[in-house]
TrEMBL record:
GO terms for molecular function: flavin adenine dinucleotide binding; glycine oxidase activity. This is glycine oxidase. One of its GO terms (cellular component) is cytoplasm. Its EC number is 1.4.3.19. It comes from the Bacteria. It holds the Pfam family DAO. GO terms for biological process: thiamine biosynthetic process; thiamine diphosphate biosynthetic process. Pathway: Cofactor biosynthesis; thiamine diphosphate biosynthesis.
Length: 368
């Protein structure tokens, strides 16, 4: 029997397991295919400011708390895991393609300034000085120096290693149900048997809302289609986000010559289809903003599901059953929120106390 069983070996589950093991707990992670869900699709943006939606100040504060932790977290994972995680600290440029897009950027900038966030308005010429591959048609920009990125797949590989070195047991099996005993979470049922544990951490991403045995949770799948291209050496300095005739696209350079173009946002349940329209829209907008993208090799297309919640913020802390802890619902910010989620969840597991920074994100907020 383990102190803790973690359902889900994606970024959130592994980082939480690793931190909990570092606190002296015995931890088992269960996943039949770790790192092939949303963690495999994520562009890796660490972008609390450029992801901030209107009236999402609580989530913004959590994102800022997590981005602050990122440099030390990355160094720690690299040391323990033995491989680089591709942290890029070049900042993020947001550009507007036409006059309406720039009007929207102006409103966004006013909101960012009202919140005291670090975002600098750029002329088209200044934007192109920073990113010379941008089309001359760009009408204006915003530089957010504190929004960074990491290579999500490299991070997953390093975390897998770090967790195992710290003593985490990984069971490659399908989680079929939460094991409940006397009204308390008591482990996990899997295709191959039962894993008994004192506490269960639910870190199944978009699937968290449909594990038998778990009381209903406000988590739904939000589909994202995303593209990976090769041949982009020196194409971009940092992340470029663009509004193109009202539609959003982001371009995230990673690992040498690679570039991620993302992402659609679709409420279509667990639809796994990569569609012609989705790929078309992403490439069309990306090429409008950076024309040289049309010369790159399209090496991968995929669709995965973000774990969406009604307020776009995660579900952290005690779950709806004794013995069940939530680390899910990270929606568009799973990679960004990995360090803070792992830290607060490990603290709760080790001491029984949920740190203050996570208090606004317990699931009972929806009943308040
Ligand atoms: N974080 C970007 C996305 O979810 O598409």
């Amino acid at each position: 029997m383990s102190d803790v069983a973690v359902a889900g070996g994606g970024l959130i589950g592994l980082a939480t397991a690793w931190r909990a093991a570092q606190r002296g707990l015995s931890v088992t992670v269960v996943d039949d295919s770790p790192g092939t869900g949303a963690s495999a699709a994520a562009a890796g943006m660490l972008a609390p400011v450029t992801e901030a939606g209107y009236r999402e100040e609580a989530l913004l504060r959590l994102g800022l708390a997590s981005v602050e932790r990122w440099p030390a977290f990355a160094a720690d994972v690299e040391r323990a895991g033995g491989t680089p995680v591709g942290l890029r600290t070049a900042g993020t440029l947001v550009v507007g393609f036409d006059e309406d897009d720039v009007r929207e950027l102006t409103a966004l900038h006013a909101y960012q300034r009202e919140l005291g966030l670090d975002a600098e308005r750029l002329t088209p010429r200044e934007a192109r000085r920073r990113e010379p591959s941008l089309t001359p048609r760009v009408r204006g920009g915003l530089l957010v120096a504190g929004d960074h990125s990491v290579d999500g797949r490299a991070l997953h590989a390093a975390l897998l290693q770090a967790a195992q070195v710290a003593g985490v047991r990984l069971i490659r099996d399908r989680v079929t149900a939460l094991r409940v005993d006397g009204g308390r979470a008591a482990g996990l049922e899997t295709a191959g048997g039962t894993i008994a544990a004192g506490t269960v951490v639910l870190a199944l991403g978009a699937h968290s809302g449909r594990l038998p045995g778990v009381p209903p949770l406000p988590v739904r799948p939000v589909k994202g289609q995303i593209l990976r291209l090769a041949g982009a050496t020196d194409l971009l300095e940092g992340t470029v986000r663009a509004l193109v005739r009202g539609r959003q696209v982001y371009l995230v350079p990673y690992a040498g010559d690679r570039l991620i173009v993302g992402a659609t946002t679709e409420d279509r349940g667990f639809d796994p289809t990569v569609t012609a329209g989705g790929v078309h829209d992403l490439l069309h907008d990306a090429i409008d903003v950076v024309p040289a993208i049309s010369e790159l090799e399209l090496v991968e297309t995929l669709a995965r599901w973000r774990p969406g919640t009604p307020d776009n913020a995660p579900l952290l802390g005690p779950g709806p059953l004794p013995g069940l802890v939530l680390a899910t619902g990270h929606h568009r910010n799973g990679v960004l929120l990995t360090p803070v989620t792992a830290e607060v969840t490990a603290e709760l597991l080790a001491t029984g106390v949920l740190p203050e920074v996570a208090a606004p994100f317990t699931t009972d907020r929806f009943g308040r």
